[in-house]
Amino acid sequence: QTKMRGSFLLTLLSLFVTCKSLCTPLPPSPTSNFAAPFRLGHGSRTQKIGLLALRGGGSSGEEEVAASVLRVMVLSKSARIPVRASGQAVGYDLFSAEDCQVKASDRQLVKTDVAVAIPPGFYGRVAPRSGLALKHSIDVGAGVIDPDYRGNVGVLLCNAGKTDFEVRKGDRIAQLILEQCATPAVVEVAQLDDTDRGAGGFG
């Protein structure tokens, strides 16, 4: 009976060790292009920031974090952190921080009261939301956020409809999409190489 009890205890210990090893998260690979989410504090509020799978090897810790996340700073109590509506959504929804009206055939700059730090090698494109475009003829203009811009992100709403459009605080008004960009040096040349199209069209 003593041997059976000892064998039973050893079995339990073995199961405990096995479960612990299976439940322990593996450290991220230094060459992996993906990373787990983490939290950054902002004053008394802790905000969950989603990693954007932009990580590369060979960087210091701070540089790696800066290149891997979309850092967001809240500028007022009316602001809301940009979020993706679903797991595979490309854009981060932007929310209005104020009540305002976009008159018919007019435009209005709407504040979000958030500032962002776009990861290096990317820029932020403020794009319209399909629902607003279809139902209310609301488009977005001047939608480029440079990586070095640290001010209040504004959304220029353009109303192509025939009725005024009411914006309420907390409404989703646009989406922020991060796109890779290239900024090569500009070199003046005497002649460009020939192509099949040539100068056809205007761009």
Automatic annotation (TrEMBL):
Record key words, sorted: Hydrolase, Magnesium, Metal-binding, Nucleotide metabolism, Signal
Pfam families: dUTPase
Segments forming domain dUTPase-like: 79-203
InterPro entries in UniProt: dUTPase (IPR008181), dUTPase-like (IPR029054), dUTPase-like_sf (IPR036157), dUTPase_trimeric (IPR033704)
Cofactor(s) named in the record: Mg(2+)
GO terms (BP aspect): dUMP biosynthetic process; dUTP catabolic process
EC number: 3.6.1.23
Biological role: Involved in nucleotide metabolism via production of dUMP, the immediate precursor of thymidine nucleotides, and decreases the intracellular concentration of dUTP so that uracil cannot be incorporated into DNA.
Similarity annotation: Belongs to the dUTPase family.
Protein's UniProt name: Deoxyuridine 5'-triphosphate nucleotidohydrolase
